[in-house]
Specification:
32% of the residues lie in helices and 24% in strands. By secondary structure, the protein is an alpha+beta fold. α1 crosses α2 (51-63).
Length: 133
């Protein structure tokens, strides 16, 4: 259940496609695509109520090719090396094959429906998608 909950946190970053989706190593114009790193900060209020969301979002995220790189349920103060961390909850870093793969996942009807299942149970501080250099 804890592992599923951790995946839920990652899935909150946003994650899903209604179809099994593969992004080629090259875009339409033949240029190589760049991976995208998604950083999610979220506070979970009702972890025991997230089962339906996890069941809906998890297969969508996996079909979209998400790779969870790091996840902590709370950011320890000793891990903030400069400035302050003003957000409650944890942080997740995910990797997608391209910005388009992430956008297709995030904007899919199926994932938007899954988001409804987590409303009131999870507060997102932010979701940021950054294309690699």
């Amino acid at each position: 259940m804890e592992r599923l909950l951790l995946l839920v946190i990652g899935a909150v970053s946003g994650i899903a496609l209604s179809l099994v989706f593969q992004v080629s190593a090259e875009g339409e114009n033949g240029a190589a695509t760049k991976p995208v790193y998604v950083v999610v900060s979220a506070e979970i209020h009702e972890p025991d109520q997230l089962g339906p969301y996890a069941e809906a979002a998890r297969p969508l995220a996996l079909a979209a090719g998400v790779e969870v790189l790091a996840r902590v349920p709370a950011v320890p103060e000793e891990n903030v090396f400069e400035g302050t961390w003003p957000h409650a909850g944890g942080i997740t870093i995910e990797k997608f094959e391209s910005m388009q793969a992430f956008r297709d996942f995030w904007n899919s009807d199926d994932y938007q429906a899954a988001i409804e299942l987590r409303k009131g149970k999870v507060d997102l501080n932010f979701v940021v998608a950054l294309e690699a250099n």
